[in-house]
């Protein structure tokens, strides 16, 4: 009985660590994507290749695309467990 409980707790801890790591990586990639857009977009604005409004619009649209994708990834993780 105690072995079963210990095994169950061990699996629960492993799953929790996986979810924590996966969530952290998801946020890191999201933040890196935002930094990438702002960095290269700012360079394009300074070189008059695009306007500031276009950069802001692209950033908002990118968020509207990446948000649902990250939500689907979270749903997929929950569905597997």
TrEMBL record:
Q: Which residues cross the membrane?
A: 20-40, 52-76
Superkingdom as given in the UniProt entry:
Bacteria
Give the way it sits in the membrane: Multi-pass membrane protein
User: ABC transmembrane type-1 domain: which residues?
Assistant: 1-81
Which Gene Ontology molecular-function terms are recorded?
ABC-type transporter activity; ATP binding
Q: Carries keyword Endoplasmic reticulum?
A: no
Task: Give an example GO cellular component term for this record.
Answer: plasma membrane
Keywords, A to Z? Answer: Membrane, Transmembrane, Transmembrane helix
Subcellular location(s) of the protein = Cell membrane
Q: Which PROSITE patterns match?
A: ABC_TM1F
What's this protein's name?
A: ABC transmembrane type-1 domain-containing protein
Organism, scientific name: Bartonella rattimassiliensis 15908
